[in-house]
Design brief:
Number of helices: 14
Radius of gyration: 21 Å
Distance between the termini: 47 Å
Shape: globular
Structural class: alpha/beta
Low-confidence stretches: 1-64
Helix content: 40-55%
Order of helices and strands: EEHHEEEHHEHEHEHHHHHEHEHH
Number of strands: 10
Length: about 325
């Protein structure tokens, strides 16, 4: 007799074979319950003895690792798409919102004002993207589809947490991945908020990245103080990897998410800092003109971190948009 055990949006369908003993099956169930999650690769599998043993080891090992605490919300490790990602969540049980960090960013460095400021009306979720922050090891890599991969990871996190529908807030690199996610998953994404993103790279963008390549010489003290405690000696090689990834995109033609942006059907809010030196103003303008029906708001004195510098105003704008 088949028995289904639900974990968030994932279900393990365990159909014991004759050679699988009841004690083994009970041990499997117990380990999976203890871990509180299963890998997507285990869905709808008919485990034999060797598969059961592997799954018990995986679940038990996962259960033994506790996520470090955060002053910004509840923390946990979520296993999705073959990786263990660090997740922070806070707030009410309103419509869930996932916040997608930028390059080198984490839930705590990039979205601490939103984990608090949006939480009165929403369940706010953020995460350290694979290879960043506490979602290491391994460190970040840069395949050609890494923005698509980040979008897939965000969707899988929300599914694993039990949220079939949710809204998305994306900053910088996270905005690019959020655009792709909204285009690919209109049945799940209810509303989209993006800022600091770029739908393509051109030589001017490459020049900007290269001007920041040496983190000790070119990054501000605020940026160094934020990221050095997270990455230590890994910071420079990881930023080198990002700069090289941008050059690779340029070599492939420069497109990041232009096609996806034009296909978005969900309500979208584009925000921007007019004085953003990292992502020039033509990028958010392009998003606002090419995403069907997009709303646009500019902060005249804003730079790249409008959601931190102008946190209260930013949060009110976003809350108003999400409430409509």
């Amino acid at each position: 007799k088949a028995q289904d055990f639900g974990f968030g949006s994932y279900t393990v369908t365990a159909k014991p074979q004759a050679r699988t003993s009841p004690p083994a099956m009970r041990a499997y169930r117990r380990a999976a319950l203890l871990a509180g999650h299963v890998r997507p690769s285990l869905q709808d599998r008919r485990p034999g003895p060797s598969a059961l043993l592997e799954n018990i080891r995986t679940a038990s090992a996962s259960a033994s690792v506790s996520a470090p605490p955060s002053k910004h919300g509840k923390t946990q490790f979520v296993h999705i798409n073959g990786r263990r990602l660090f997740v922070v969540s806070n707030g009410s049980e309103g419509m869930p919102v996932i916040c997608m960090p930028g390059a080198m960013g984490t839930a705590e460095t990039d979205f601490f004002p939103q984990l608090k400021g949006l939480a009165a009306r929403h369940r706010v979720v953020s995460f350290d993207p694979r290879g960043y922050g506490k979602s290491r090891p391994p460190v970040r890599d840069w395949p050609a589809d890494f923005y698509h991969r980040d979008g897939d990871d965000a969707h899988a996190i929300m599914q694993a947490l039990g949220y079939q529908k949710y809204s998305v807030v994306g900053w910088s690199d996270g905005a690019n991945a959020a655009v792709i996610l909204a285009a690919k998953r209109p049945e799940a994404v209810q509303k989209l908020v993006i800022f600091g993103g770029n739908a393509w790279v051109e030589q001017a963008d490459i020049d900007s990245y290269e001007a920041t390549r040496d983190v000790k010489k070119n990054w501000s003290n605020n940026m160094l103080n934020m990221h050095l405690p997270v990455y230590g000696d890994d910071l420079q090689p990881m930023w080198d990897g990002f700069c090289d990834a941008m050059k690779d995109i340029m070599a492939r033609g420069g497109d990041i998410c232009q096609v996806e942006a034009k296909s978005i059907t969900v309500p979208t809010f584009v925000l921007a800092g007019v004085k953003d030196a990292i992502v020039p103003f033509n990028h958010p303008t392009w998003f606002s003109e090419n995403i069907p029906g997009a709303r646009f708001h500019a902060f005249p004195e804003g730079k790249h971190n409008i959601h931190i510098k102008y946190a209260d105003e930013f949060n009110e704008l976003v809350l108003g948009f999400l409430a409509e």
